[in-house]
């Protein structure tokens, strides 16, 4: 089990063995691809695992896909539509019912759920980022299970390329999670597609994503929009923030508990030993608008010597972006190794590409030092030689410490006391940075048999809400008895 770095332990008032765990449930794990119905059995088993983790004193957050899929089910649609407006409407329909399923099942297990809807743009704003972290702190302190989803009705990017994998990594970054579990319909990352290559073998541990040779050909189903490529992107973000990411199968949700106990299941991405903190951790959550490719010299200067980016090393500009937008920094092959906030828009960067500083004044018509991205606005996704982040420090009041303080303020009877945390007032002082500046537990529930009966009763009630066609095909099996 991953241990929290000693520098964090010293600041904690709660045991470091109480982990913050984010579980992302993909559409393929919730919706039956053949009939387009919600798999209540699978959802209930996952919720039972959440109950078990919560009973051990861990803090659990669920990132759930499936709103559009459930919307299709409620309207009896046999295929997922392709028009954006239709997807947004279906997400609005499905999210209501999806949350009711979570509420009914978690309530039967003795847990209280809460709903959090986010967009990438919310996290891009520093003050909103701090406010979101404060909200999660309060929700966890109250003992609830936050259920997070992208605000699909307005989040155009998510509905275009389906990136709840990335959203879950950003949530894990936001709450300083120890583990992020991506539950999907495959049991691990393979060296090749196991469906067509009998020699394919699972990859259980990945320490260096940049040197990874694996099959990433799997794409989303007709009901979902994710794939293995988005999971690798999520792994880069999570591991850079110090979070261990695990790809595992939703067919065996109990495997999460086993993996935490040391079992070799799924694919585990090892976090960087020196992870990003403070402002640079926030940079991981800012939506990327484009990419800048560079030669080996510029990459070495940024990754190993911690220098800023200048035009002379730029070899290619991808996409259209404005000044202060986040961009990916890539090597000569297009592999992303860092992210940063650009001081110039894409047209200016393209014009400055490969130029020396002395040439810029005549080119642009004004004097500039040509610093495309200041090192204080750079976040490395991969470690370099003698890796260190000289401008980074652990936040004086991270989510863990704030959570411990929040719990300490609660009355002895467990009722939470409102203490009026103001996120906006802390945005500029909480970790010593200003968002607008540039560069710079709970005991286990008693009566397992009674609880199982409650879950079964909820499942039976929910089954009546399913489509008649689904019931005719037997797609709503009874809940299995929990494994202990």
Please provide a written account of the structure:
The protein is of the alpha/beta class and 484 residues long. It has 2 domains: 283 residues, 3-Layer(aba) Sandwich (Carbamate kinase), CATH 3.40.1160.10; 94 residues, Archaeosine Trna-guanine Transglycosylase, Chain: A, domain 4 (Roll). It is built from 19 helices and 15 strands. An 8-stranded mixed beta sheet has the order 3-4-2-1-5-9-10-8, with helices on both faces. A 5-stranded mixed beta sheet has the order 12-11-13-14-15. Strands 6-7 form a two-stranded antiparallel ribbon. Strand 13 and strand 14 form a beta hairpin. The longest helix has 25 residues. It is globular. The N terminus and C terminus are likely disordered.
CATH topology grouping of the largest domain = Carbamate kinase
- In the predicted model, the low-confidence regions spanning at least 5 consecutive residues are 1-13, 219-226, 385-396, 412-446, 463-484
CATH class of the largest domain: Alpha Beta
Mean pLDDT: 78
Q: Largest sheet at a glance?
A: 8 strands, mixed
In total, the number of domains comes to: 2
Give, in spatial order, the strands making up the sheet with the most strands. Answer: 3-4-2-1-5-9-10-8
Helix content: 25-40%
Q: Rough shape?
A: globular
CATH architectural label of the largest domain: 3-Layer(aba) Sandwich
N- to C-terminal distance: 20 Å
Q: Determine the strand fraction and express it as a percent band.
A: 5-15%
Class based on secondary structure composition and strand pairing: alpha/beta
What's the total helix number? 19
Counting DSSP E segments of at least 2 residues, the number of strands comes to: 15
Could you name the CATH homologous superfamily of the largest domain? Acetylglutamate kinase-like
Integer-rounded radius of gyration: 23 Å
